[in-house]
Every structure is written in structure tokens, then in C-alpha cells.
Amino acid sequence: MSTQPTCRLSGNNLSLVLDLGMQPLGNGFLDPDSTDNEYFFPLQCGFDEESRLFQLMEQPDPRMMFHDDYAFLSSTSQHMQRHFADLAETVLRAGYLDSQAPFVVELGSNDGIYLRHFAERGIPHLGVEPAGGVADVAESQGVAVLRDFFNLATAQQVRDQHGAADVISAANVMCHIPNIREMADAISLLLKPGGVLIFEDPYLGDVVQKASYDQIYDEHVFLFSAMSVAEIFKPVGLELINVEHLPTHGGSMRYTLGRPAKHSVADSVPTTIAREEEQGLNRTETYSGFALRVQQSARDLHELLHALRSEGRAIAAYGATSKSTTVYNYSEVSSDLIDYICDNTPTKIGKLSPGVHIPIVPEADFVENAPDVAFLGAWNHEPEIRSRNQWFEESGGRWISHVPKVRFLD
Ligand code: DWN
Q1: DSSP H or E segment with residue 170
Q2: Cys-Cys crosslink for 238: which of 104, 121, 254, 257, Cβ 3.0 to 4.6 Å?
Q3: How far, in Å, from the CA of 277 to the mean position of ligand 1?
Q4: d(CA 319, ligand 1 centre) in Å
Q5: Interhelix angle for 284-310 vs 322-330, to 10°?
Q6: What is the CA radius of gyration of the chain?
């Protein structure tokens, strides 16, 4: 199956700013006996000064990425479990829900990490989730799920069956939805007049600042800024009313949008947009500088791991993230440099990492077969992983991260 050009918000003004070469699917973990004919596609990013959108030039068909065997489970991180419990509390306390007929919708509800807090309180809710395996987990927690992609047709279906929503939420999902125009129309259709859209995604400002290019892979068709989010929703009459910078996933932004007459705009909106202009997130040249730093980062990682290997060090990685697929494939780090990747996701264990085919093993193997050095593939979960593995550093083990620079975490 070939790639498809991504949705262009303002005509055809997308300039190619970063080429990460041929890449496999970020979550395309493979059975060891089925590595033939692995799918690769050109991972290239463009920037459009008019819409201020940073996006992939082309993308694989979403059905190749989000299917019943989708590998990622949101609840694998305890920190993220607390994060979504807090978000549910915030929504409940903010008074967004109609006391007579409340209704909360989540796009990409994964294993129910967020909606279960509404389900537990008996609050009408619905997750829209195309990946059947993770939807099964959500349903087992009492979460109601519509197993489908979110688009105009499903928005109409949900509205017809359940009514309009007070709150539409999406966490690490909006940046995965390729047809962004239709997505904005569908949200507008499903939202009550006074309703709010609350979504969070990895933040372009952090990616550029930290050269965390691993946030770029097949699933992340867009990396948003406050400026680009304001542009996307303007045509459907939704205004950015609040933005909140978050530490999750190495730097995320939470965007809240509503209809202008119904909500006031927080100071954080103009302040953040002004900061983005200072950072140059509205200029193509900024991304040329970013591309150079990305190339340097990839070279540095390869050289460091190669040098350690030449000294005879045992090297492993922690966290078989989708993100690290981009890092390994772009910096040409494969099983000759990394012995194994440990991970706590049952469906990833026993498989090979996409493209470079490093074996994925359970976390217990990290204890039993401890390496000298561990590359932190899940660098965004650094505090959680390091605090649970203090023994590793105490026994002389050293962590390596590539964000914001390739270095030992001493
Ligand atoms: O946007 C996306 C994010 C939210 O999740 C998706 N496109 C896909 C996925 O991306 P990712 O795989 O890069 O996400 P994480 O959260 O960085 O993945 C962490 C990985 O590390 C998981 O496979 C679980 C694993 N892990 C572990 O083995 N031990 C995580 C923790 C915290 C641990 O203690």
C-alpha cells in the first residue's frame, strides 16, 4: 500500500524542511519469522508559513497504523494514569458538564485511561476508537466505545444516537488525524453551542527546542503550536480560549477551544503565541536550523554507541516506543549496537523493533541481564523509569538519552 499526501490547510505551500529517510511504521513491531516485505515509506516533514502547520508530506494509510493489533497501551505508565485522573477531575470541576444531560466524548480513547473516571461516576460518555484490541481493554473497564475512526459520518452518528457533547477530549490523538479540515467540521458538528474541545499533543515548540525528532513518525501527521491550532479551528468558529504547557511526553500543550461568545480568552493564549513568534515557529528558516541539529543528534548517537560497543560494553534500551523507531532507523542503530529493548507492554514482547529488528524483551530481563549502558527510548518517562530502576545506577549502570543532546544522564 502506498502513502497518501497529507491534508494541506492552505493550498500547496508546504516546503520540505526535514527528510528522515525511509522509515517503517513506528508501532510496526514484527514477529521474528515475518520480517520479509517489511513496509517502509519516506518520512519527510514540511512547513507551511501561511497556516503555520508543521506536518508530514506523505503518510501511510491510517488503516495500516490503527488496527486491532495496535501495540500501544496508554496505561503502561503510572504517571500517565495520574495525569488522566487529574484531567478528568479538572473537567468535572470546571463546570463544563450540563447538570441535566452531561455527555463527554473522547477521540482515540485507547484503553480507557481517561474515560473510566467518567464511567466510574456513571456520567454518560463515549470513546471513539478504531483500534479493537485497546477498545476491548477500555470496555472491560466499563467504558463505552464506538469502534471507528472519527470523521463527519461518525460525528453525525454519535450526535444522532447520544446528542451533542459538552466536552470533546483527545490526548495524543488530534495530531494523528490526517484529514484535519474534516476533523474540525466533525468536532463543530458534535459540540454543544457552549461546549469545549480540550486536546493535548506533543508541542512543536519543545520538539524544535530539544531536537526531539523522535516525535516525528508515521502516526504523528502534525506537530501543533498554538498558532497553527488557532488557524485550524477558525473556519468552524472555534476559538482558542486557553493553552497550558505540560511536561508529558517530553513537552506537550493542552489546547482548550470554544465558541467566542460563550467563553473568555485566557492570557496564556496571546502570551504563548507571542513566545512562538519569538522562537520563530512561524518561519520556514527555523526548521532548516532544526534539521541540522537533528542530523547532528543522529550522528552523535551512532558514534557514542559505536564507541561503547568497541570498548566491549553491553548496551540495551529501555522502552520500545514508537518514537525510538525514528531514532534507530535514522541514526542507523540496530542489533549490532543494542542487544535488546525491554518493555512492559505484553503485546510487544517477543517481537522485533520496526526496521532495525532489535529484540523486545520483558522488563525482568533488564534486571537479570543488566547491561553496562541503557539507551532511554522512553526518555519522556525518565523520572518514572529511573526511580523504579535505581539499582541500575547504584550498581554502575549508566543511562543515555538523546534529548536535548546525546549524553549520559549522570
Ligand atoms: O502519541 C502516541 C503516544 C502517546 O503513545 C502514539 N502515537 C504512540 C505512543 O507513542 P510511544 O510509544 O512513543 O509512547 P510512550 O508513552 O513513550 O511509550 C512508552 C513505552 O515504554 C511503552 O511501550 C511502555 C514502555 N514503558 C516501560 O516498558 N516501562 C513505559 C514505562 C513508563 C515503564 O516504566
Answers
A1: strand 165-171
A2: 257
A3: 31
A4: 7
A5: 80
A6: 21
As for ligand 1, residues whose beta carbon falls within 6 Å of it are 72, 76-77, 172, 219, 319-323, 343-345, 348, 363, 378, 380-381, 384-385
pLDDT at 1 over 70: no
Answer yes or no: is pLDDT of 74 > 90: no
Asked if 54 contacts 38 with a C-beta cutoff of 8 angstroms, the reply is no
Mean pLDDT value across residues 105-118: 97
Top mutation candidate among 323, 328, 401 for ligand 1, by most atoms within 8 Å of CB? 323
**Length of the chain measured in residues:** 410
CA of 238 to the centre of ligand 1 (A): 31
Please state, rounded to an integer, the average pLDDT across all residues of the chain.
96
Phi-psi region of 117 (alpha: psi -120 to 50; beta: other; left: phi over 0): alpha
Ligand 1 atom with minimal separation from the 321 CA = 12
Distance CA 75, CA 79 (A): 9
pLDDT tens-digit profile of 347-396?
Answer: 999 999 999 999 999 999 999 999 999 999 999 999 999 999 999 999 99
pLDDT given at position 135:
96
Predicted structure pTM score: 0.96
Supply the DSSP string of 14-65, one letter for each residue: PEEEEEEEEE--TT--B-TT--TT---EEEEEEEETTTTEEEESEE--HHHH
Nearest ligand 1 atom, CA 79: 32
Q: Quick check: 73 pLDDT over 90?
A: no
**182 alpha carbon – ligand 1 mean position (Å):** 28
Nearest CA to ligand 1 atom 7: 219
Distance from C-alpha of 350 to C-alpha of 360, rounded to nearest angstrom: 6
Residue nearest (by alpha carbon) to ligand 1 atom 26 = 319
3-state SS, residue 293: helix
Q: pLDDT for 206-246, tens place per residue?
A: 999 999 999 999 999 999 999 999 999 999 999 999 999 99
Atom of ligand 1 nearest to the CA of 320: 23
Q: Mind spelling out the 3-state secondary structure of 179-246?
A: CHHHHHHHHHHHEEEEEEEEEEEEEHHHHHHHCCHHHCCCCCCEEECHHHHHHHHHHHCCEEEEEEEE
Atom of ligand 1 nearest to the CA of 318: 28
252-258 and 239-246 strand pairing? antiparallel
